[in-house]
Amino acid sequence: MKSLVRENDKLPWSSAPGRLHIVTFGCQMNEYDSQRMAQMLMASYCLTPYMDQADLIIVNTCSIREKAEHKLYSLLGRLKRFKCSNPVLKIGVAGCVAQQLGAKLFQRAPQVDFVVGPQGIYRLPMLMERLQGGNDRLHDTGLQGDFQIPYIDALLPRKGDVRAFVTIMQGCDNYCTYCIVPLVRGREISRPVEDILREIGSLVEQGVKDVTLLGQNVNSYGKNLSKCVDFPSLLLEIDRAFPGIRLRFTTSHPKDISDRLIGCFGSLSTLCEHLHLPVQSGSDRILKRMKRRYSRAQYLEKVKKLRNVCPDITITTDLIVGFPGETEEDFRQTMSLLEEVRFDQAFAFKYSERPGTAAVRFQEKVPEEVKSRRLTRLLKLQNQIGLEQYGRLQGSVCKVLIESCSGPKVTGRTRGNHVVNMEGREGLVGRLVNVYIERACHHSLIGTIIH
Ligand code: SF4
Known about the structure:
The chain is an alpha/beta fold and 451 residues long. 33% of the residues lie in helices and 23% in strands. The chain has helices spanning 28-40, 66-85, 96-101, 104-108, 124-132, 181-185, 193-205, 231-241, 259-267, 284-289, 296-309, 328-341, 368-391; strands spanning 2-3, 18-24, 45-47, 56-61, 90-95, 114-116, 138-140, 163-167, 169-170, 189-190, 210-214, 246-250, 274-276, 314-321, 345-350, 397-406, 409-413, 419-423, 432-441, 444-450.
């Protein structure tokens, strides 16, 4: 759970009379959507880091895992008391849980004034007008196949941000059997190239140097656009237009990683040496049940090609343990895949059933205690591999872009997406420095700036 702005943040736009606080659960796409909501409401509201001082609180939700829903209800319970101290306070729920539950949310949480889904957030100013006009309990959870993501000028929520995210598409057409995303975010919709270039241009003007393109499956970018463009062509256009930036993207579906896209890692100077490539399982039987549409061998082949083109590439992944029907042998294959690929980092979760997905109907559920034991074994192995992978940088010198400063310490990032902590001062934020890597920790590095 994150607040869009924090205490001591320098806020670039703050003259509007109302005070808005946005809480974000879940992924980077949700963070991006939270920023867009703040921008759409900026004529009437300025951002506040303090929930208890807000006139409008929006909770932007995620429904990938069941736990996120529980967290939402627990937060909404805490927000109830703010309504007693501030009678003008409005509370809204946005995002995937809002889409999934719609008007049903009002029954369980009557303190909620409005509910908007991932497409509905773009109609938020109109909804707010209706709310101010005396209407209450409003919901907008329509999902239209021909929806176009409107262009909204990119403004950073905090002055001095070095990194920014740009959504290039939303929705997904893949329907993996465990995943709720296509049900709550709808079909794939790509943004026009011109809008994406304009948005990156605006971020670069504000000082951004590291841009991550976002989408549920960025590799299938362009499918619904009239202009003939695919993801590698988009990367090429961005690389040409903004040669000074660091460019990244997430998330990639392994089945859609083409040789042209792999080639981009060897030919585009802006494209950073990091790829997040969710494998989910190392067992062909489970991959088939998940409807992932690639085999273990095909996944390994793509990793091999990537490392041929770009030997230093950092590869990270997502894994699910305890998917229905996963046997000890299937799990063993996932463990052996970890050893074979040697991921730099893996985000592993116990399978959690999501309503409306195909896997809900699958038999052979794996008991919770088995899932927990497998997850512990998997994390133990991955922690060891990750530490060894990070350890390979020990004793080397990396170019690090400094992103933030806290006291006498600064934090930055390598092109390979390793977070590096070192001593430094505020003035270094936004600067590219050479750092001698002294030590590897789990998921980060410790270094010293070389002058
Ligand atoms: S590709 Fe990703 S977002 Fe789409 S259904 Fe599969 S897991 Fe969900």
